[in-house]
């Protein structure tokens, strides 16, 4: 690293995992003799045509790519293969190569070149949930979908623990004949459940086994498609039968990540291979900040996947509750936010004045003496590091219960308390996280409580000269009527790349999720049935990937957009108590937190109507984003002429939600259409139910949809009229919905209208 400097390195904290790095622009400049350092670039080129370069095989395509490499290589002893990192042939037209900025500049003059950018490093977004979602053995959608039999889920992640019982193939038939993938594990570790395992780290497929050294990939894979495992628990908590969403689906692991993140070139290479292998669903619990779709490797690769009929599910990110904090915003991707389930691992802080504050902790020591102990708040001295219990900030805390402010590194705070001699920790939320608490595998007795509880606990400390407390460990508690709640960390919309598309699309279980782990977290579990409880949109994404596999199994002819529509139009916006779903404030969550709502697998399996989109339908939408023809070609891998195709507003895409923006007088009245396809009974009549967003007028025509055939399509028209005073009161957006109701189905399109508050 000598003589090099890193530019714009931003640290991003990811829930449940170590600190990782996102390289905003991966630029490193050498000092010395004026030469720029070499780095990996993602290069997009035009798909060659016959009169430019005759291509009839993958080898010809690779030869075409090599023509873009610097001419200087041909005049030296350096082999071109040493520069080429990945070549893409299915989901994208281009390659990843080691180049200098000067070489990239020279490449721009070559015919067929479109664009190049430095490779980015993207971060990971890191039991009872099947029951919470209404999935039960022998009943309903699980039975109807044969538990996902015959569907192949490709997971791009940190690898997998192949010998975990969650990946047993008991009851799982052989993979379908279309499967072409490989297994880089030795012996019999791959089976009818784990049918593929590849390692893409550091350029090309390494051929080495994709062992999971981090745990993330094992957890996400088992959440999507883990087989039934009885007696699953962590620290003896949440005991029961663990299963993924599609227990009999097949799994293919593509290792692209380490604890330091996931390189963009490896991600696109894995997507490219997964499509060729024959997967049906792709699950990516990772992503970076917002970029134009033609510069976003995941968006480009995902479009190539949906062109082949492959469903793509991605995590929304862990940068909430701030607005405009999303990852993976492309409309052809299902963008998944995180919510709670109705189970908690209860740990209650009991104060010396008998005040009790319920919190959570996965670590529930049976030998902890519940005697009241001295209670201290290190932050009382005004030192922010001490308040956060940062490494090296504490001392002389022997036998005391220590109050620590929340934030990055929850488990690490406990390690610092333990190092300083503390007996236990009460982790209190900062204001931004409100009532969102997470059950972690702490290293000492601990509980994580809300911001409000933290204020009361600190007030108690200030009220007496001898504050005391203890922690009461109450184990697994099921039955939270406010579940599901949106997690504070779950990234929020609106989309910055395409605000005319409502994102996130959906929320699903992502808080304190029990799933497979490659090693024992308590050093006490015998055998290979090791589990851990982790939180993040990384956990909610594979829930939706597995549910998509169930729908694919039940409806093999459905397109990716049809599956997505079924999930979104049947989503729930009420909790178990029948009230509006709340967020970390315990007030109703807004539409930029919820998207369409919380997934309901049983209803999604029988949606009545769907909003379908074919890959070519995205081209007018992309033209409407004012992308150039060449930029769109990067995404679609086909020649595009927007002047001939025509551009449409974002909200005209046949999406299952509406996101409109009004500002100037020219945009106060807007007209759109939607086309629905009947996938319910042939003879069906749907009546309109409309909740109009405040400060907006709406009309829908027709107001009754009458179908006489299965797969019949009907188009309806919607007019929006923003009031003159919309936004003048400082309220930036308003919500409503459009719902088609028959005697058997209710099909909901959620609406958000964003106003100019100028």
Automatic annotation (TrEMBL):
Active-site feature positions: 157, 216, 538
Protein name: Uncharacterized protein
Pfam name, any one: Inhibitor_I9
Keyword tags: Apoplast, Glycoprotein, Hydrolase, Protease, Secreted, Serine protease, Signal
Single GO term (MF): serine-type endopeptidase activity
Region feature Disordered, mapped onto this chain: 201-223
Task of the protein: Required for arbuscular mycorrhiza (AM) development during AM symbiosis with AM fungi (e.g. Glomeromycota intraradices).
Biological source species: Prunus persica
Top-level taxon of the source organism: Eukaryota
Residue ranges of domain Peptidase S8/S53 in the record: 148-574
Matching InterPro entries: PA_domain (IPR003137), Peptidase_S8/S53_dom (IPR000209), Peptidase_S8/S53_dom_sf (IPR036852), Peptidase_S8_Asp-AS (IPR023827), Peptidase_S8_subtilisin-rel (IPR015500), Peptidases_S8_3 (IPR034197), S8pro/Inhibitor_I9 (IPR010259), S8pro/Inhibitor_I9_sf (IPR037045)
Signal peptide positions (record): none
Domain PA: from-to ranges: 374-457
Ranges for domain Subtilisin-like protease fibronectin type-III: 652-752
Domain Inhibitor I9 stretches: 40-125
GO cellular component, one term: apoplast
GO process annotations (BP): proteolysis; response to symbiotic bacterium; response to symbiotic fungus
PROSITE patterns linked to this entry: SUBTILASE, SUBTILASE_ASP
Family: Belongs to the peptidase S8 family.
Compartments, record wording: Secreted, Extracellular space, Apoplast
């Amino acid at each position: 690293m000598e003589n090099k400097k890193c530019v714009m390195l931003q640290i991003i904290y990811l829930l449940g995992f170590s600190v990782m790095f996102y390289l905003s622009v991966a630029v490193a400049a050498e000092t010395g003799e004026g030469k720029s350092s070499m780095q990996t670039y993602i290069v997009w080129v035009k798909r060659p045509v016959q009169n430019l370069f005759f291509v009839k095989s993958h080898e010809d395509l690779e030869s075409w790519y090599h023509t873009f490499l610097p001419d200087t290589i041909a005049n030296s002893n350096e082999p071109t293969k040493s520069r080429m990192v990945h070549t893409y042939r299915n989901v994208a037209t281009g390659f990843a190569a080691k180049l200098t900025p000067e070489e990239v500049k020279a490449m721009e003059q070559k015919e067929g070149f479109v664009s190049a950018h430095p490779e980015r490093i993207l971060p990971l977004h890191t039991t009872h949930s099947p029951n919470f979602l209404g999935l039960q053995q022998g009943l309903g959608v699980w039975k109807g979908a044969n538990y996902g039999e015959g569907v192949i889920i490709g997971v791009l992640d940190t690898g997998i623990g192949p010998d975990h019982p969650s990946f047993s193939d008991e009851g799982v038939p052989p993979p379908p004949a279309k499967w072409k993938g490989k297994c880089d594990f030795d012996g019999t570790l791959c089976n009818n459940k784990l049918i593929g395992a590849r390692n893409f780290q550091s350029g090309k497929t390494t051929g080495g086994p994709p062992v999971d050294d981090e745990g993330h990939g094992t957890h996400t894979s088992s959440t999507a498609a883990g087989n039934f495992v009885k007696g699953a628990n962590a620290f003896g908590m949440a005991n029961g039968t663990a299963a993924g969403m599609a227990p009999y689906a097949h799994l293919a692991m593509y290792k692209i990540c380490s604890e330091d993140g996931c390189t963009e070139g490896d991600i696109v290479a894995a997507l490219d291979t997964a499509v060729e292998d024959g997967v049906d669903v792709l699950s990516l619990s990772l992503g970076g900040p917002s970029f134009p779709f033609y510069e976003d490797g995941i968006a480009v690769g995902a479009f190539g996947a949906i062109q082949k009929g492959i469903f793509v599910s991605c995590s929304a990110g862990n940068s909430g509750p701030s607005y405009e904090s999303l990852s993976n915003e492309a409309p052809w991707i299902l963008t998944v936010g995180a919510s709670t389930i109705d189970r908690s691992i209860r740990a209650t802080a009991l104060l010396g004045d008998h005040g009790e504050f319920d919190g959570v902790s996965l670590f529930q020591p049976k030998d902890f003496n519940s005697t009241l102990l001295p209670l201290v708040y290190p932050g009382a001295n005004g030192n922010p590091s001490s308040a956060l219990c940062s490494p090296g900030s504490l001392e002389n805390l022997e036998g005391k219960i220590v109050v620590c402010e929340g934030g990055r590194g929850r488990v690490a705070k406990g390690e610092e308390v333990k190092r300083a001699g503390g007996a236990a920790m009460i982790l209190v939320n900062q204001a931004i996280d409100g009532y969102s608490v997470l059950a972690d595998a702490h290293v000492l007795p601990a509980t994580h409580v809300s911001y409000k509880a933290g204020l009361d606990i600190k007030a108690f400390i200030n009220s007496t000269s001898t504050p005391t407390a203890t922690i009461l460990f109450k184990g697994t508690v099921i039955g939270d009527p406010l579940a599901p709640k949106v997690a504070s960390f779950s990234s929020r919309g609106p989309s910055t790349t395409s605000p005319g598309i409502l994102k996130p699309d959906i929320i699903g279980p992502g808080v304190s999720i029990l799933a497979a782990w490659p090693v024992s977290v308590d050093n006490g579990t015998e055998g290979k049935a090791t589990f851990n409880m982790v939180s993040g949109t990384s956990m909610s994404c594979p829930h939706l990937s597995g549910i998509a596999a169930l729908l694919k199994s039940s409806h093999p002819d459905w397109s990716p957009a049809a599956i997505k529509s079924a999930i979104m139009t049947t989503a729930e916006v009420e909790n178990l108590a029948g009230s509006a779903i709340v967020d970390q404030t315990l007030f109703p969550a807004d539409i930029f937190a919820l998207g369409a709502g919380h997934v309901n697998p049983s209803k999604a399996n029988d949606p009545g109507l769907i909003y379908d989109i074919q890959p070519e339908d995205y081209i007018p939408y992309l033209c409407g984003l004012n992308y150039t023809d060449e930029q769109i070609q990067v995404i679609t891998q086909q020649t595009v002429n927007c002047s001939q195709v025509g551009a449409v507003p974002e909200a005209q895409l046949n999406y299952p939600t509406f996101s409109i923006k009004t500002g100037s007088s020219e945009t106060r009245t807007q007209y759109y259409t939607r086309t629905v396809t009947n996938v319910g009974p042939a003879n069906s009549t749907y009546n309109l139910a409309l909740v109009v967003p405040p400060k907006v007028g709406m009309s829908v025509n027709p107001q009754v949809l009458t179908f006489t055939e299965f797969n019949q399509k009907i188009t309806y028209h919607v007019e929006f009229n923003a009031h003159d005073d919309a936004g003048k009161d400082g309220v930036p957006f308003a919500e409503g919905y459009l719902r088609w109701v028959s005697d058997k189905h209710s099909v909901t399109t959620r609406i958000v209208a964003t106003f100019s508050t100028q």
